[in-house]
Amino acid sequence: MCPRAETLRAAPATPGCRPGWPQGQDSSFAREVHARLVRAAARANAELIVVDNRYQPKIDGDGQFKTSLDKVRRHLRQSKAKHVLVGAANDPSALGAVRAFQEAGRERTCAIAGQNAEPDARAELREPRTPFVASVAYFPERAVEVRKTR
Fold first, then answer.
1. DSSP label at residue 95
2. 44-149 has which CATH code?
3. Residue ranges per structural domain of the chain
4. pTM of the predicted model, to two decimals?
5. CA distance 49 to 47
6. CA quadruple 99, 105, 108, 111: dihedral sign
7. 128, CA 20 to 30 Å: which among 5, 19, 27, 68?
8. In this predicted structure, what is the pLDDT of residue 3?
9. What are the residue ranges in the chain where pLDDT is below 70?
10. Could you tell me which residues come within 8 angstroms of residue 15 by beta carbon, excluding any fewer than 6 positions away?
11. pLDDT at position 136, please?
12. What distance in Å separates the CA atoms of residue 107 and residue 97, rounded to the nearest whole number?
C-alpha cells in the first residue's frame, strides 16, 4: 500500500504504485496527463520540461525553489526553444522556473504550471503577465469524506 493510502485509510493503493510514491503518482491518470502534455507541446511546437517528476525530459529541482531556479537557469542557457511548457511537481519548483524565465527575459515564451496551490503560488497567479498559468490543488481527504457520506 502506498504511504498516502495508509495515511488516509482509504481504498487500497493504485495497482502498480511503487513504494515511496504517493497514491496516484504511478496511476494511469498520471501517465495520461503526461501523454497529453507531450501531445500539446508537440502541437504547439514547444519544448516540454518536467521539473521534479519521474517523467522525461526531467530537471531535478529537488522540490525546492532555489535548486529549481538554478537548474532551469542552466537549462535556459543551452535551450534554443522558442516556446516552452513547464510542468512542476510542486509550487516552489514552478516558482523557481518562473524566476529563471523572468531573469532570462523569456517569460512571454513559456507557460508554467505547479501543484498544491500554495499561498505564494496563488499570489504569483494574480500578477499581471506572469508565465505561471496554473497550480493544481488535490484534496484526497475530501474524497474520503464523500465516500463516507454515501
1. H
2. 3.40.50.2300
3. 1-43, 44-149
4. 0.68
5. 7
6. negative
7. 68
8. 34
9. 1-30, 52-57, 140, 142-150
10. none
11. 87
12. 10
